[in-house]
Amino acid sequence: MDVLLSRIPSAALTTTFRAHPSLNALPNHLLDNGTMTSGTRASERRLMTQTLQLPNPDLPLVFVNVAGRLQISMSGSRRNEHEAECCQEIVRQLVALNVSPRSIAIVTFYKAQEQPCTRWILSRAVKWTSSSSLLLARTSLRPQKTSWMTRDA
């Protein structure tokens, strides 16, 4: 496989168009040394900043501190049932605010965290992935030269 991969030309991704530019800033700084360009203006990614009252209205990102017991699987992956319930409630509230489920994506840090509510989330057409899946998908595109992007919304 290494021989085959060594013969396939690759090109570094230089522009990303999917996420709000503020969401791209941290991974761009950490992974791409600031070389990634956002092809999308913040004004084109205002769904969340206009729908919700966010702590920072310019950044469509919220961290929610959720209590609960962490469970560790045999593989070392982690999950928290209370976090899964919190995600479901956040999705319910977003949908109640007329946010299309196709515009909602949930990214977990651990694959096992998907298990508690995968069926529930998928039945609502919400995108669900783990951060490791996003990172693994990047490896063939030289992770140090590509951008961390969300799935199609």
UniProtKB/TrEMBL annotation:
Q: Does the keyword Hydrolase apply?
A: yes
Swiss-Prot/TrEMBL keywords: ATP-binding, Helicase, Hydrolase, Nucleotide-binding
Per the record, the domain of life is Eukaryota
List, alphabetically, the InterPro entries matched. Coronavir_polyprotein_1ab, DNA2/NAM7-like_C, P-loop_NTPase
Q: Where is the DNA2/NAM7 helicase-like C-terminal domain?
A: 9-115
Q: Which GO terms describe its molecular function?
A: 5'-3' DNA helicase activity; ATP binding; hydrolase activity
Q: What is the name attached to this protein's record? A: AAA_12 domain-containing protein
